[in-house]
């Protein structure tokens, strides 16, 4: 894919090339600085949300044109950034989208897109503090149950209430970054409550996955999922893999 400035972009395929034209906005552009970054970031978000390549490129071009039409980098003040929302975040702290309404996070946009095309959205939840092989196996198994995997991640405050002041060992930002580095994870959404029930009500996944140390029939999420026809699946644990054991082993090194 090659960008062509005011002429849009060219998608180069094995058999034919596709030209995506920029909208005829009639803009007077004095400084195009930042347009490429805006295009690249918007393209990544659109692809992560489930758009096909052509639609994603169209959206990215429109986003770049809108950015330049608003004054480009010269219109930014302080820490305001010309980037779309990240693939992870707390939905209560989403970026503003005009008129004071929050912009839909990537996790919610992805879920909506997948379900609108008949796909299955899988969600898995937990603290994922000190990511280990057991976590990886669970998430890989979860991803195999549907068309996308969204991780519902306990916030730092939530973990402190559940596990004490010594936890988490890693910040929610670092935990989210590590999860997003896994090929099986498509998006991460942070929640601040003790349980993910409110987030699940809003996300409405088709499948909810937990480790087999939980009894599916005893989980409060089970009745919730079944209320809209969803399923709850428990995945066998990897023997000898746990955050507590890993933390103890690390502490023993000191």
Explain the layout of strands and helices:
Blueprint: E1 2-3, E2 9-12, E3 17-20, H1 35-48, H2 53-69, E4 88-90, H3 106-116, E5 121-126, H4 133-143, E6 148-154, H5 156-163, H6 172-180, E7 187-191, H7 197-203, E8 207-211, H8 220-227, E9 231-235, H9 243-253
Parallel strand pairs: 4-7, 5-6, 5-8, 6-7, 8-9
Antiparallel strand pairs: 1-2, 2-3
Helix pairs in contact: 1-2
**DSSP strand count:** 9
Main sheet attributes: strand count, strand direction, barrel closure: 6 strands, parallel
**CATH class category label of the largest domain:** Alpha Beta
Strand residue content: 15-25%
CATH evolutionary superfamily of the largest domain: HUPs
* CATH fold call of the largest domain: Rossmann fold
Name the average pLDDT. 79
Please tally the helical runs, counting DSSP H or I stretches of 4 or more residues.
9
Low-confidence stretches: 73-86, 90-101
Straight-line distance between termini: 50 Å
Helical/strand content category: alpha/beta
Rg, nearest Å = 21 Å
CATH architecture of the largest domain: 3-Layer(aba) Sandwich
Order of helices and strands: EEEHHEHEHEHHEHEHEH
Q: What spatial form do the alpha-carbon principal axes imply?
A: globular
Domain count: the total is 2
Helix content: 25-40%
Strand order of the largest sheet: 4-7-6-5-8-9
Protein name: Bifunctional protein RfaE, domain II
Keywords: Carbohydrate metabolism, Multifunctional enzyme, Nucleotidyltransferase, Transferase
Pfam family, one: CTP_transf_like
Domain Cytidyltransferase-like: 124-216
